[in-house]
Amino acid sequence: MKKFQPIDLSALLQELKRPKNTLILFHRNPDSDAVGSAFALRSLLGELGSPAYCVCGDEIPARLRFLTEGVQESVLPSSIPACFSPERILTVDVASPEQLGSLQADFESRVDYMIDHHGRGTIFADYYIDPKAAATGEILFDLFSMLHPECLSAPVCRALYAAISGDTGCFRFSNATPHTHRIAAALLESGIDAAHINHLLFECKSPAQIRAEATGSANLRLYAEGKIAVIPFSYAQKKELEVEEEDLNTLIDVARSVDGVLLAFTVRQPADAAEFRVSLRSSSTYDVAALAAQFGGGGHPRAAGCTVRTADLESAIQAILEKIDNSMLF
C-alpha cells in the first residue's frame, strides 16, 4: 500500500507553479468553504498558467452560485470539455475519499494532492492538511499571500471570505482564531461587501428551505435529559415537501440551537436507499469527529459528518446514539 507524504506550503506552491491542466475536486453536498476554496484555487492556477476546472459529484446549491457566476456554470463531470485532459488532480476540503461521492470510483486513486483542514479523515494522496485552520479558504489565503498581491483579485477575495465565514458560522464558532480574524480583515480591506456575502450565506432562505426547517423543528427529538438533539429527515419527507438535499443543510443549526443541547445531529436520507448522511455538531468538549470516524467519516472536534448504511432511518439514528458516550455530556 502506498504511503502518502505530507508537503509543506512552499513546496505545494512550487508544484502549483508548474503549468498543467488541472482538475480541482471538492466534496459532495458542497458548502461555501468547498466552493469558495475550489474557485479561488482555480483563479490562482489560471494566473500561474494552468487551465483548471472545478468538479463535484453534486451541483452547486443555488445560494452559492454567486461565487461561480461567469466562471463555470456547472461543476458536474459531464460539463468538462471532452478535449480537456487533466495532468494534475487536486482536492480541496475533502477529508476522506468517501466525501467525493460519485467521483470516488473514478478519481480516488488519481488524486495528486489533498489540501484540507480537517483533523480526522482518511488520507488518500500526498497532502497539506492544517487542522488549526478554521477553513480550507484560510490555507489558500496563506498560500496566495506567498505570491504577488495581484493574485488576490476581488472575486478571489470574495470566494475566500465566503469560505472562511461559512466554516466559522460568520466567525461565531470556536474554530475562529486571531489569525482567522486577521485574514478576514485583510480580505475586507480589498473592498469586498462582507455584509452582502454574509446575508447570502446565512439570511437568504428559499421557501423550500423554510418548509424543511419547519418540518425539522416539528420532528426534533431530545435525548440524554435534553443534552442530545436529533432531527431525522426521510426521503419520503423530501418528496412530500418538494425539497432538495441542499434545502436540508440548515437543519443541523435548528437542532444545535435548542437551549441545553450539547450534541446535535441530523440524519438525512438523500435517496430511496439504505444510506443516510449524518451531520454532527458539538457545543461542548465532546469530539464529534471521533464519533464520525467510527463510521468512516471525519471532520473537526466540533463539526463532523459521516455516512451510515443501515436498514432504515430509525436504525441509523440508533446506530449513532449507541456510539455516544453519554457520560461525557454530564
Structure, explained:
By secondary structure, this protein is an alpha/beta fold. It has 2 domains: about 10-200, inorganic pyrophosphatase (n-terminal core); about 205-330, Roll (Diaminopimelate Epimerase, Chain A, domain 1). The protein is about 35% helix and about 15% strand. The chain has helices at about 10-15, 30-45, 105, 135-145, 155-165, 180-190, 195-205, 205-220, 235-240, 250-255, 290-295, 315-325, and strands at about 20-25, 50-55, 90, 115, 125-130, 220-225, 230-235, 265-270, 275-280, 300, 305-310. Strands 6-7-8-9-11-10 form a 6-stranded mixed β-sheet. A hairpin with a 7-residue loop joins strand 8 (about 265-270) and strand 9. The chain starts with 8 loop residues before the first helix and ends in a 7-residue tail after the last helix. The model has no long low-confidence stretch (mean pLDDT about 95).
